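Long-time lurker. I teach an intro course on protein structure, and each term I like to show students one example going from raw sequence to a predicted 3D structure in token notation. This year I'd like something fresh instead of my usual example. Would anyone be willing to generate the tokens for the chain below so I can use it in lecture? Attribution to the forum is fine with me.
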Amino acid sequence: MGVTRLLALAILGTCLTLSSARAQSTVDPIVSDARHIAILDHETRQVLYCRNCDVAMPPASMSKLMTMLIVADQLRAKKFTLDTQFPVSENAWRHGAQSDGSHMFLEINSRVRVEDLIKGVVIVSANDACIALAEGIAGSEAAFVDLMNQRASALGLTSAQFRNVTGLPDPDHVISARDLALLASIIIADYPELYRHYAAPAFTFNGKTQQNRNPLLGRVDGADGVKTGHTNISGYGLIGSAVLNNQRRIIVFNGLPTMAARTAESQRLMRAALFDFQVTSLFAKDAVVGEAEVWLGSRARVPLLAGEAISVAAHRSVRAGMTAHIVYEGPLQAPIAKGAVVAKLVVEGPGTRQEFPLAAGARIGRANPFAKAAFGLQQLFGGG
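-- Reply from a regular --
Happy to contribute to a lecture. Here you go:
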């Protein structure tokens, strides 16, 4: 009783061996000077690669994705329209043309359409537009930041902590690469009408044209977003997204020393994300994965079902060395409730380990007295 059981499975097109030992590490498949990296598969929202991706970092302008998510939420709730005009306060103006940061040349005391402000933020990372939107929606930047933090909490972005709407340096304004990738994925899935603006190559306002700084656009096939970021503290970073063969990948990296390094790294990492990583679907939700032994139950075995759709992501360099096991403490003791998580599927290989919960596919009651007696005789005379 209480022995860990490991059952080998054959998946990924090869016979996977049974092994209770952890796979040995291998050479990092991604060579990069970036301090933080996350590569996300958009459809499954699986992280394909992580380097310090759960460490909160200063995101610079990349945090403007959360600013825009709040704007999109409010638009959908019909709190205003794209044609609504918001005033440009002195505060917004000073963060625009009177600053060294990115801006769209808003004029003090003018009124500007929401759609133009959105394009200013999305395409040219305009700080003045961020503040004009925040003040127009919530009355103040601080009140809008409260909405950002509440939304991040509701989405489960546990690393996120926002202090402004622009991403300007603040030691308490942080988020992880993983959470930025998830945030981008949410916007892409939930707000396509907003996301389409991220692919625009340029934006013209008040007679001034500025270019989109995203180095993926026009250089990597299928690239259509998302956002650059830079401060002296954060270094140069990027959230990027592209589609190849109906598969979308999202990359996030941060901490590079120069704009040129960001340009080169963005294209190299995105091509790696699209070509070097593969996601394989193994089991649909509620599919039978295997079975587990039951001790003194109304049935001797219980089917194990996938508690969620199971897919496995791996770099091409480690797929051949991957193994899969059903692991549980067994035999399981009756009674067992249907749907109770009683085991897990563990898929591991060089440098990677993924675990998925498995649930009991049937209710298993206790064995009746006659079955218990028969089992006892069987054990006594060595029939087991």
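Some talking points for your students: The chain has a mean pLDDT of 89. The CA atoms of residues 198 and 224 lie 6 Å apart.
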